[in-house]
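Thread: quick sanity check before group meeting

JM: Hey all, I'm pulling together slides for Thursday and realized we never actually wrote out the predicted structure for the chain we discussed last week. Dropping the sequence here so it's in one place. If anyone has concerns about the input, flag it before I start.
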Amino acid sequence: MRDIVLAHKVERDHLLAGTYVIRESLDVARKNMDNDLIKVVLGPRRAGKSVFSIQLLQGIDFAYLNFDDERLLKVTDYDEFIKAIRHIYGETRYLLFDEIQNLKDWELFINRLQRQGFRIVITGSNAHLLSRELSTHLTGRFLQFQILPFSFREFLEAKGFSVEKTHNTKEMQGLILNYLDEYIAKGGFPEIVVKNLEPKGYLSTLFESILFKDITKRYSVRYAKKLFDLGHYLISNHSSEVTSTRLKNILGFSSVHTVENYIKYLIEAFILFFVDRFSFKSGERLKSPKKVYSYDTGMAKSVKFSLSHDMGKFMEHIVAIEVIRKGIEPYTYKTVNGKEVDFVIKIGSHIVELIQVCYDISDYKTKKRELGALVKAGEELKCDRLMVITWENEGVETINNKKIIILPLWRWLLEEEPLGQ
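JM (edit): ok, ran it. Output follows.
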């Protein structure tokens, strides 16, 4: 055990020596380091959870264990971890445990360490597994932070482009659009961006690794090929509506129940998320089709069977991820006469904003359709803040006494006020 912990200390020191992009949520997280609450860092594999945790603990002497190391999982007496940590690190009270969900009954161990006065940061790549144990055993004793692949702002900083520069010149806007093209195509996984890796091989391999390592083994999935087919189909049809019944029929599953279980596994492993259609009636929300998105457009492009490049769908995808990044659960909406609105932003019990995403509204018919849907939805949902996000169009329109803000995607990503403000 001593040798394993010593090897992990070398890994820790290597991470500490690196130079990293400062994540947008880091300042908020650092303000909570003085309390004894367990810090829980959740998100997709390879999205930067370990680096975020290292940044969080910068300047503090802490011990580090990575539970992706199968040798640690063979240990039955967890006090052996603490014995070896004391041997290597001395009296430090700070612990960073990476990918903690791999350790059996980890929550009981962490709970005991916290009672003993340790200050603990844990990371994990399974949303349900961690949330279930956290709510059961650590109620009120933890703070949770979600780390996703780089935002566009973080992507630009990783590229050395100062987001504080003025965006008012055409030249600067052209450069930003060039970077936005790259961001949509490659995504925001840190190693892709920082090391300039070829995305298709890296991301398709990561996708398959999560399917077969994190999901198939953990849940003892009997039909791994079906899980693979479902994951591929859903990520290839991002920004589209799906139902479990339709997926069962298309992919030849034996039951809707199996489809729903596999979807749950994909969600828990941070591969996909779904957006419900909004209704004031909970029953209608449950029955309606849901829109599917991945947490990274680069992964969607790398895994897709299709070679088509629908920029409108990828723009919508980017907006969905950004809303989730802000900690808000979005909805879609269909008006009583069948007009669709891409995003309903609901904070608490209030609908605060409606967002439509459209690549180009220069065409009169397109503009009439997209703005008309927003106005109709605004009337039905009693929402006055209406927005269309485009590639380059910008301005303000007024229809039926309702003001509609039109913003380019890049400006919304970099400059927009908090949602609903």
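AS: nice. Residues 311-421 form a domain with the Trna Endonuclease; Chain: A, domain 1 fold (CATH 3.40.1350). The chain has a mean pLDDT of 93.
JM: adding both to the slides.
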